[in-house]
Design a protein that fits this description.
362 residues; alpha/beta; Rossmann fold; 3 domains; five-stranded parallel beta sheet; four-stranded parallel beta sheet
């Protein structure tokens, strides 16, 4: 596997498939920061799920909305534990089944059932529009929820004359250890990561809630230097609503998400001809004449500032503003020295006596 993402740092907010996504990114050379924004809590013993299942058996649904693969599998597994799996399968087999996406469709077919329709966008709004056009007056709809209630969908279907049975299979909860998420938020706000991946809309909302008074800084970073990469359009919606440009694949798959990042991140790099060298800036590294040179945060911050105004002299005071709080002008000198050593190209950064430093642009 080529190291297309070498030198880039990418945050992963997924929980359930974080190791799979991290491995896909690491195989391409990326440095990965694992920071689950949410975790899934199954409700196999929950009274509400049992009551919803009983309601479906007492009044078989005409339509089933399968929203997620994990939800449909969890529902059938819970029914198995209650001795209701076969009656539930019989009821679902007679219904018009809508699978919101490929994972839900896979779970339905693995259970020996058949789906009749799926939305191209994988959005609940498109499902609701389809069902209203089809006609739902007087019909019963079983809606498998994906972690939280969907009151807007339920109300729209009820307004069209349907009876909706909400089926809660699991719920979203905060991560057991919130420290990695807060660390990722700090890295995003400081623009020390190149991209953050999201695999669900609730994870986006959870990260922004956790950001608290840093939310504006996080959103500003996503609108600028940090790529927000979402697995699909539904996941992207909370960011798009806040004016954040989003990268998303056409198909909602982890492999497609990684390929999108591989295509997008290298295009966002800055390349310069400096002192006879071709210099390309990546997240935590520079590429000098095709050779990767990893750099610590302070020298990397100085290099970014100098590259932002190539050839222009920046004073020690100006460069000091790029370093962590509490640093002094001596820290700038140390960062420049470490930068020169890390690049292994000492003529790239020129000292201008009594004025500061600049890149020696060709």
């Amino acid at each position: 596997m080529r190291d297309e993402l070498a030198g880039f740092t990418i945050g992963v907010t997924a929980d359930r498939r974080r190791d799979e996504l991290a491995a896909l990114l690491q195989r391409r050379g990326a440095r990965v920061v694992l920071a689950p924004a949410l975790r899934i809590v199954p409700l196999a013993d929950d009274t509400e799920l049992r009551e919803a299942t009983r309601a479906c058996l007492d009044r078989p649904p005409d339509i089933v909305m399968a929203n997620t693969g994990i939800g449909m599998r969890g529902w059938l597994e819970a029914a198995e534990g209650w001795g209701l799996a076969e009656p539930l399968r019989s009821v679902l087999a007679e219904a018009y089944v809508v699978a919101r996406g490929p994972k839900a469709r896979g779970a339905i077919r693995a259970a020996g059932l058949h789906d009749q329709w799926s939305p191209a966008s994988e959005s609940c709004d498109e499902v609701v529009d389809h069902l209203r056009r089809r006609g739902v007056a007087g019909q019963v709809i079983a809606m498998q929820l994906h972690g939280e209630r969907q009151p807007e969908c339920t109300l729209a279907l009820e307004a069209a004359g349907a009876t909706v049975i909400e089926v809660p299979v699991y719920r979203w909860a905060p991560p057991t250890d919130p420290a990695p998420l807060h660390r990722l938020i700090d890295l995003v706000a400081a623009r020390l990561v190149d991209a953050v991946t999201f695999t669900s809309a609730p994870a986006v909302e959870a990260l922004l809630r956790a950001a608290g008074d840093r939310t504006d800084a996080v959103l500003a970073a996503f609108r600028g230097d940090v790529l927000a990469s979402c697995v699909g359009s539904v996941t992207a919606e909370p960011l798009l609503r806040r004016g954040v440009p989003v990268s998303a694949p056409n198909r909602a798959r982890l492999g497609a998400l990684v390929r999108t990042i591989v295509d997008e991140l290298p295009r966002r790099t800055v390349s310069l001809k400096v002192a006879g060298h071709l210099l390309t800036l990546r997240g935590h590294a520079a590429v000098v004449d095709g050779e990767l040179r990893p750099l610590a945060p302070a020298p990397m911050a100085v290099l970014r500032a100098l590259a932002h105004s190539p050839g222009r002299v920046l004073s020690r005071t100006a460069l000091l503003r790029t370093l962590p709080r509490g640093a002094d002008e001596h820290a700038v000198e140390m960062a420049v020295a470490r930068l020169r050593a890390g690049l292994r190209a000492p003529r790239v950064v020129q000292t201008v006596v009594k004025r500061g430093y600049r890149l020696r642009v060709d």
